[in-house]
Design brief:
alpha+beta; 2 domains; three-stranded mixed β-sheet; two-stranded antiparallel ribbon; acyltransferase; CAT-like_dom_sf; transferase
Length: about 280
Amino acid sequence: MRNTHLKGAQISTQLKESLSKTLDHLYPFAGRVRDNLIINDYDEGVPYIETRVNTHLFEFLQNPPMELLDQCLPYPPLSYQPNSDQVPQAAVQLNIFDCGGIALGLCLSHKIIDGATASGFLRSWAANSRGACHEAVTEANSKTRRFVFDAKAIASLRSECKGERVSNPTRIEALSAFILKSAMLASRSTANSRFVLHQAVNLRRLTEPRLSTYTVGNLFLFASAAYNMEHAAEMGLHELVARRKQAVGSINREYLKTLHGDESFPKDHSHTIYKNL
C-alpha cells in the first residue's frame, strides 16, 4: 500500500507540473470570465483536487453506477454556478485507486471551450507530461446513462450501416445512427412529425487560412439532419448515416465564404442545412 501511495504522489506531482506548463501557453483556461465579455485574472489558476478511491480500478469499471462516476469529477455534472465571475474555466480531479490505477476527472466551461479546444488542451497536457514539449502548444433536470458497445457489436453496426451512399461508415456514424433510430422509435407517440439530429462541426480545419488545432473558443457550427417520424420503423441505419453525412458535408469552405460580412450569417443556420434533405 505504501508503494501505491508513493506512486500516486509521483504521478500527481508530474501531472501538476505539466499542467502548469500547459497553462503557460493556454492561459485562458486559468482565467475567469468578467462581465460575460472577457477572460482575465489568469493567475487564478485551475482547481486541482486529489482523492483516494478504496477499490481497484478494474472492479470499479465493471458496472459502476452513475452516482459513483459523478464523484470522480471536481464539480457535480450539469450543475448551475450562480457566481459566474468566480467559476474556473477548468477543474481537475485526480482519483487514485488502491491498485495504483488513476482516473482523471475534468470539468470544462463551455463559455470558451468546445470539443476541439478541450481535445487540444488534453493533448498539450499529455505531451508536457511525457516530456514531449515539441508536441505541445507553445442545477437542471437531467439524467446520465452509460452504454457499453464491445468491438463485435460495433463491427455489426458498421456492416448494417453500409449502403450505396456510404461504403465505409465510421464507428461514430454507426453508433450515432443506432442511437438516433432507437430514440426515434421510443418517441413516436410523443414527438412531432420530424426528428432532428444536430452534429457539431469543427470549423478550424475549414477556415482560410486554416486555424491552429489549439485555437481556443467555440468554433463550430451545427449541421442538422431532419428525419420523417412516419417512416422511422422502416428507415434503415444506412439511410440515417447518409443523411447525417450529407448534412455534415454541407458545412465546407464554400459555405463558410457565404458567412463573410456583417449581414451574411443566417439567423436559423440549422434550417439552412437540412431544409433540402
